Amino acid sequence: MIASPESPVDTINRDILAELQTNARIPFAELGRRVGLSTPAVIERVKRLEENQIILGYRAIVDPAKVGLPVRAFVKVTIAGDRLTKFSALIKTLPEVLECHRVTGAESFMVQVALRDVGHMEEVIDAMMPYVATNTSMILASPVPWNSVLPTLPGEKRTRKTGTA
């Protein structure tokens, strides 16, 4: 299948995305072998995926527990009115925040934090308190800590491979 102007992701680009999400450090020559392209062709496709902002960046995934932050939690935040902007600015300054999402429903935001201990959690929640009401859920385990994003092409049924890597 060829990529259309509306969707620059064809079968080969999807395969490239799958490989890069598994290992973003894969050499272009090996990536090309895996998807059936020459090295220059795969470099050009990756460049276009970056230019089209389909690939947003590359990063190391670090285990918070192994760097002294073994406690993780979701803080559900409820805010009203003009405090949304103030909270958005504040949350960007807290180094404990792994991710923050504006959501629908009873809460305004879902914030994932990584912390040293329960006392540290109290400090972080207190830092949020001038703006919000919170409800916190501790993360006990993460059966799916992160998953790849792969588009479903027209006429294709979405399935996910299971098993160990």
TrEMBL record:
Sorted UniProt keywords: DNA-binding, Transcription, Transcription regulation
HTH asnC-type domain residues: 9-70
Biological-process GO terms, alphabetical: regulation of DNA-templated transcription; response to amino acid
SMART domains to which the protein is assigned, alphabetical: HTH_ASNC
Protein name (record): Transcriptional regulator, AsnC family
GO MF term list: sequence-specific DNA binding
Coiled coil residues, start to end: none
SUPFAM superfamilies membership: Dimeric alpha+beta barrel, Winged helix' DNA-binding domain
Record PANTHER family: HTH-TYPE TRANSCRIPTIONAL REGULATOR LRPC, LEUCINE-RESPONSIVE REGULATORY PROTEIN
GO cellular component: cytosol
